[in-house]
Write a structure and sequence with these properties.
The protein is built from five helices and twelve strands. By secondary structure, the protein is α+β, with helices and mostly antiparallel strands. It binds zinc ion (ZN).
């Protein structure tokens, strides 16, 4: 039994599985259509953060921070060591020392994995985000990079750029090549309306970026000469403590970037 299995426990697995089955019927506390740049919001302990695709795959860089103490945040190295390179359903999301505890749990992941010779999978845990220096070095231009977007998202939750940390790469289909150790990615398996759900085991600040690398399908040479399309996402927060929604539909959120409460 790994440390992660011991921490998770069978009872917790049942709790998260039950919650996952009910998430879409729960009262939705907020929803936001994000079609460019960065975004940040608070997710109370016990609430569920859903990040969904509105058109097609889009790489989303996600920072998760303890809302009560921003010095505690997602720990990418610990995550990879304990859970592997990719995040999926029932995967704990580990935080930094000294607490080294579960900050969140991935309770939903609708992406249907298609096996391939490279053994890539969506939702990388390795923790990088692009920044202006990398884009200028490799592409010779400066789009709205994940660093820029995360900085804007951090500002939305009252934090500065120094709160940006190594992050999760949602809808990024990747692997570390076992012989060379090189990072490799290819087209995402995700499709329109796929989503990933995170249960907040502690009060969270969720800050994200729509990566200018878009769906991840652009060839390296395209970075220099083209504006790679960025596709919109829907960010929703569900509240189990508020019970089931009386009339909640996913469709009514699309196209309405508003906050309900
Ligand atoms: Zn990026």
């Amino acid at each position: 039994m790994t440390l992660a299995d011991k921490e998770r426990g069978p009872a917790d697995a049942a709790f998260y599985t039950d919650l996952a089955a009910r998430t879409s019927q729960l009262t939705r506390r907020s929803h936001h259509v994000i079609d460019h740049g960065g975004f940040g919001c608070r997710v109370a302990k016990g609430q569920i953060l859903r990040i969904g695709l509105l058109e097609r795959a889009q790489i989303v860089d996600l920072c998760l921070t303890n809302a009560d103490d921003p010095t505690e945040h997602y720990a990418s190295g610990t995550q990879v060591a304990l859970e592997g390179l990719n995040i999926t359903r029932l995967c704990p999301i580990w935080g930094t020392p000294p607490n080294s505890r579960r900050l969140a749990t991935c309770i939903g992941d609708t992406v249907v994995h298609r096996d391939n010779p490279s053994h890539t999978r969506d939702h990388g845990a390795h923790g990088a985000h692009c920044n202006p220096h990398h884009w200028m070095l490799y592409a010779g231009r400066h789009p709205d990079t994940c660093y820029d977007n995360l900085r804007a998202g951090m500002a939305m939750v009252g934090l500065g750029q120094h709160a940006i940390h190594d992050n999760i790469n949602l809808f990024e289909n990747c692997v570390l090549e076992p012989y060379t150790g090189h990072y490799f990615l290819q087209d995402s398996d995700a499709e329109r309306h796929d989503h990933v759900d995170f249960y907040a085991d502690v009060p969270l600040l969720a800050v994200l970026s729509l990566c200018p690398y878009g769906s991840g399908e652009a060839m390296d040479e395209d970075w220099r000469v083209t504006d790679i399309p960025v596709y919109p996402i829907l960010v929703e927060v569900f509240d189990p403590s508020a019970g089931a929604a009386r009339a909640s539909s996913r469709a009514d959120a699309i196209g309405k970037p508003s906050v309900e409460s």
